[in-house]
Design goal:
By secondary structure, the protein is of the alpha+beta class. Helix content is 38%, strand content 18%. The chain has helices spanning 89-98, 115-119, 128-172, 295-303, 305-314, 327-331, 340-382, 397-432; strands spanning 6-9, 17-18, 32-36, 39-44, 53-57, 65-68, 73-74, 78-81, 122-125, 188-191, 196-201, 217-220, 235-237, 255-258, 260-261, 269-271, 278-280, 285-290, 316-317, 323-324, 334-337. The strands form seven sheets. Strands 2-8-5-6 form a four-stranded antiparallel beta sheet, with helices on one face. β19 and β20 form a beta hairpin. α3 runs antiparallel to α7 (340-382).
Length: 433
């Protein structure tokens, strides 16, 4: 332990007070922020806490810590801290962020943070002057971490736009312009039905939540057909193998597309590359039978902005929830057709660019995980006394504790005196009544 520091329990220093119920329908919608376990959940004209404080998730996103410099109201799924024994409010924000509060759940139903578990956490308390230096350094270093994180968080959106740009170039002929020698594309305008030999759908069968022992047979959900990938884990189990329809079995090479989903996910095309389970089509997923060499091209078009536009414009249903597209309408979609050699080159280039984007995406996820770990590493370094230099002239923390203890005694004495004075006031008022 660094010289001049003392080891205590969090409960010796900080009081976690309970927030109060403030349902959404009772909030005015203007004024001071209202905090839940996961941050600001609304606004209200009156504040429960004045002068700012810390909010700690009690239920739901338990252990999450939030910092508010102004007046606010914490609801009953939170604790709040509005008085601090030393340093600054920002210091205790960092200290609570460092503690493993998000791992202290003991509930088997609704996840939650027990106040006694938080109070039992060990805290190393540095001298008051060093606390201020720690905050200054953490503000500086973590601002740099946040900047890096913001840049990383923006990359997935860039990659999404990059993929759409590749698809747009693919279906317009621009992607293979150099391959053609700069000549305009000589493509034919056709319908999707000109590619499709037949179209197959599954059935809506009752399934069970708990799969039986042994060899399972089931039905895929529409969530199994997502943007360009097939996820066979998204499936339901049939209660009886005899219900399984063999000619609707999902096989490697199948071209699947959702005929019912939200507007963003409707008409998602997927080519199945791997099968390990006995699964069949559902009533909301179609299988389009076509030549193998046509499947990647059709998938590219339907995932492009032009393809999505046609699917969305031809769909029916509630705009805010589930949308549908019929088989006949789906097959009537307009799309271009080029010769086999150019089609093959387009598919090759799209795969190449998408593989490049996938590689970057994986690297970004790894970098994001490292940045998240970096924040905790920096906090750990700070509260081990390794982030800033120690100053031998700092007043030791045990002297700080003496002042804290004396302040508590004085506060308790004042509280008792105030309580006594209030009792005397009420007694006098009663006597004069």
């Amino acid at each position: 332990m660094p010289k001049g520091w003392v080891k205590l329990k969090l409960g010796d220093l900080i009081e976690l007070k309970y927030g109060k119920s403030l349902p959404a329908k009772q909030r005015s919608g203007i004024g001071f922020p209202v905090y839940g376990s996961n941050g600001v959940v609304g606004l209200h004209s009156e504040a429960l806490v004045s002068g700012g404080g810390l909010i700690v998730g009690r239920k739901g996103s338990f252990g999450e810590v939030h910092f508010c410099e102004d007046d606010f109201s914490p609801i009953d799924t939170t604790y709040f801290v509005d008085s601090f024994p030393s340093g600054t409010m920002k210091y205790w924000y960092y200290q609570l962020k460092h503690l493993p509060l998000t791992k202290l759940n003991r509930s088997t139903a609704i996840p939650g943070l027990n106040r006694d578990d938080a109070y039992a956490q060990d805290v190393l308390l540095p001298p008051d002057a060093e606390q201020k230096r720690i905050v200054e350094k953490l503000d500086e270093v973590l601002a740099q971490v946040d900047s890096i994180k913001a840049r990383l968080d923006g990359i997935p959106d860039l990659l999404k736009r990059f993929r759409q740009s590749v698809l747009a170039s693919a279906v317009s002929g621009k992607l293979t312009e150099e391959w053609r020698g700069g000549t305009p594309p000589n493509w034919n305008a056709v319908k999707l039905k000109d590619f499709v030999q037949s179209i197959e759908a599954g059935k809506n069968l009752k399934c069970i939540e708990t799969p039986p022992e042994g060899d399972e047979h089931g039905i895929i959900k529409i969530s199994a057909v997502t943007w360009g990938t097939y996820d066979e884990e998204q499936s339901k189990t049939l209660p009886d193998h005899d219900l399984f329809i063999e000619n609707r079995r999902i096989k490697v090479g199948d071209f699947l597309i959702s005929r019912a989903n939200t507007i963003e996910l409707l008409g998602n095309p997927v080519i199945v590359h791997q099968v390990t389970k006995n699964l069949m089509l559902s009533d909301k997923v179609l299988r389009l039978v076509m030549e193998e060499h046509d499947k990647p091209w059709v998938s590219i078009f339907l995932r492009s902005k032009e393809g999505r536009k046609q699917i969305e414009s031809r769909s029916t249903g509630n705009q805010m929830s589930m949308r549908n597209i019929g088989q006949k309408t789906l097959l009537d979609i307009d799309l271009p057709r080029c010769n086999k050699d150019e089609q093959k080159e387009i598919v090759r280039l799209v795969d190449q660019y998408f593989t490049f984007a996938d590689t970057i995406e994986a690297q970004v996820k790894n970098a994001q995980a490292r940045v998240d770990n970096l924040t905790q590493s920096i906090l750990a370094k700070a509260f081990r006394g390794e982030l800033v230099a120690q100053d031998p002239t700092d007043e030791p923390a045990d002297k700080l504790l003496e002042r804290i203890a004396q302040a508590r005694i004085e506060a308790e004495a004042l509280a008792k005196a105030a309580k006594k004075a209030e009792a005397a006031r009420k007694k006098a008022a009663k006597a004069n009544a």
